């Protein structure tokens, strides 16, 4: 599952045209490496400035902060002086008149037969959660040891800066008048479901069209080993409301004869799982895919699994995360413990988040989950299912020349070849990109490592990983700038 370094051939499988060709490539890489290293302090300072902006895209948060983040990113892109156009764009959300959060769109055409690369990242972030769960303020970038802490420091403002820094390095190494075509798309609502993404693609199809699409929003195998993400699970989220009573009743007067909504909810949710904790919903599928070695000890270290608590599921650990479905109850609305009275609860509402395996339709999976819930409702409980959101899973085609180029760039930057990995999380818009640009080759890369804790308190970026990720992308852009046959 690892890429093989190229020795006597070019990264695209072609032999060098001459010794001069090989020397030129080596000189370009040396110049790119020098540019990345000398520019790193500025890159990190720019990243810290972005982290200070609390650009949470969720509806309950201040949209002005997302707008401020978009303006800051647009200024960085303008400062590159390589794009013919740089815009802050709002696209409409389907089904209404509301506009989505601001995205940055920039483009420059390719020349002399060179390919065009679309670089994607997102500048919005997750809510910080409780301040007391953070060791430092979530929006005050803080360096401790080799890591930069802050909300968005890894996911995905580091992805934004990886693109900015790699383009800066390319300009330093080869000059601003390079032939490579570039499009840059920095989204502003990825953490809130990319609700306007489909409209954005349709309205900006030509500006976004590329031969290669680099999505910088994933993980690396560890802090010393790069990765190319080749499989992503999809998702189905929904709100389930369980009702058994028209109003609350005294638990002493009627308990034992009347099923309250909490009892019905607990029994219903339990039907979603087998005894080993794996998903028991008929119609949710799995796939077979090879996985690298990954021990239970490593799982415990990376997740904080408490002593005595056992993992769930069956098969290899990574197959449970990459290629099998997973179902999580992520929220429950019911009386709180502090406000609990001795009453039978009439209504309980839960949020269910399901990750579906690559190869399954999200719509099909949603139908299977709803059918299971309705068929297993205990005591005739009344169910309402709404606020359903779906995202398609994705499998990357690794047979193209772009993946070969990326493997060679990562090997040169990290000193070891990349590992092909699956990711248990979802990036649903990739399926939209593939549908809109079927001939484009997709590369899913990233700046995170297993201890980045994206979405969680104390999110962080390993600065060594970040440097090598920037260098990998700079090498890739430099190589594609010299590639005339695509």
Automatic annotation (TrEMBL):
Q: Which GO terms describe its biological process?
A: proteolysis
What the entry lists under SUPFAM superfamilies is as follows: Zn-dependent exopeptidases
What the entry lists under NCBIfam families is as follows: PRK07907.1
- Has keyword Ribonucleoprotein? no
UniProt keyword annotations, A-Z: Hydrolase, Metal-binding, Protease
Q: Which residues form the Peptidase M20 dimerisation domain?
A: 231-378
The domain of life for this entry's organism is Bacteria
Q: Does the keyword Hydrolase apply?
A: yes
This chain belongs to which protein, by name?
Dipeptidase
UniProt-listed Gene3D superfamilies: 3.30.70.360, Zn peptidases (3.40.630.10)
Biased composition (Polar residues) is annotated at 1-10
GO terms (molecular function) for this protein are: metal ion binding; peptidase activity
The segment annotated Disordered runs over 1-28
Taxonomy of origin reads: Bacteria, Bacillati, Actinomycetota, Actinomycetes, Micrococcales
Please provide an example of a Pfam family that matches this protein in its UniProt record: M20_dimer
């Amino acid at each position: 599952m690892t890429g093989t370094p190229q020795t006597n051939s070019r990264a695209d499988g072609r032999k060098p045209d001459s010794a001069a060709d090989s020397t030129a490539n080596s000189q370009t890489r040396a110049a790119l490496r020098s540019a990345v290293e000398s520019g790193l302090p500025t890159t990190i300072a720019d990243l810290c400035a972005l982290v200070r902006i609390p650009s949470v895209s969720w509806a309950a948060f201040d949209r002005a902060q997302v707008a401020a983040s978009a303006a800051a990113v647009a200024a960085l892109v303008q400062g590159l002086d390589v794009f013919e156009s740089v815009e802050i764009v709002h696209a409409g959300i389907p089904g209404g008149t509301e506009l989505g959060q601001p995205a940055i769109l920039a483009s420059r055409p390719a020349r002399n037969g060179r390919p065009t690369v679309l670089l994607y990242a997102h500048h919005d972030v997750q809510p910080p959660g409780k301040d007391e769960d953070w060791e430092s303020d979530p929006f005050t970038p803080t360096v401790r040891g080799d890591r930069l802490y802050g909300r968005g420091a890894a996911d995905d403002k580091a992805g934004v800066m990886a693109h900015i820094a790699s383009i800066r390095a390319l300009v330093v190494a080869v000059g601003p008048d390079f032939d490579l075509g570039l499009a840059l798309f920095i989204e502003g609502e990825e953490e809130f479901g990319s609700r306007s993404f489909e409209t954005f693609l349709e309205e900006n199809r030509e500006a976004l069209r590329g031969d290669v699409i680099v999505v910088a929003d994933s993980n690396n195998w560890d802090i010393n080993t790069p990765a190319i993400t080749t499989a992503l699970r999809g998702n189905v989220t929904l709100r389930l409301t369980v009702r058994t009573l028209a109003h609350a009743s005294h638990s002493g007067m009627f308990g034992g004869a009347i099923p309250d909504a909490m009892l019905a909810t607990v029994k219903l949710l339990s039907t979603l799982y087998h005894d080993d904790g794996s998903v028991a919903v008929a119609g949710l599928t799995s796939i077979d895919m090879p996985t690298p070695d990954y021990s239970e000890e490593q799982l415990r270290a990376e997740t904080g699994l408490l002593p005595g608590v056992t993992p769930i599921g069956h098969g290899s650990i990574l197959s449970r995360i990459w290629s099998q479905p997973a179902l999580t109850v992520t929220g429950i609305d019911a009386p709180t413990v502090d406000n609990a009275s001795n009453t039978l609860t009439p209504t309980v509402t839960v949020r269910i988040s399901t990750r579906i395996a690559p190869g399954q339709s999200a719509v099909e999976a949603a139908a299977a989950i709803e059918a299971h819930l309705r068929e297993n409702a205990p005591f005739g409980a009344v169910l309402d299912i709404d606020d359903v959101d779906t995202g398609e899973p994705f499998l990357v085609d690794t047979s193209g020349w772009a993946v070969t180029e990326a493997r060679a760039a990562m090997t040169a930057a990290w000193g070891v070849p990349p590992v092909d990995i699956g990711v248990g999380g979802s990036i649903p818009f990739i399926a939209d990109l593939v549908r809109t640009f079927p001939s484009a080759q997709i590369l899913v890369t990233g700046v995170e490592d297993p201890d980045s804790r994206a979405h969680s308190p104390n999110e962080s970026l390993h600065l060594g990983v970040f440097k090598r990720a920037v260098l990998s992308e700079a090498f890739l852009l430099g190589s594609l700038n010299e590639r005339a046959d695509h």
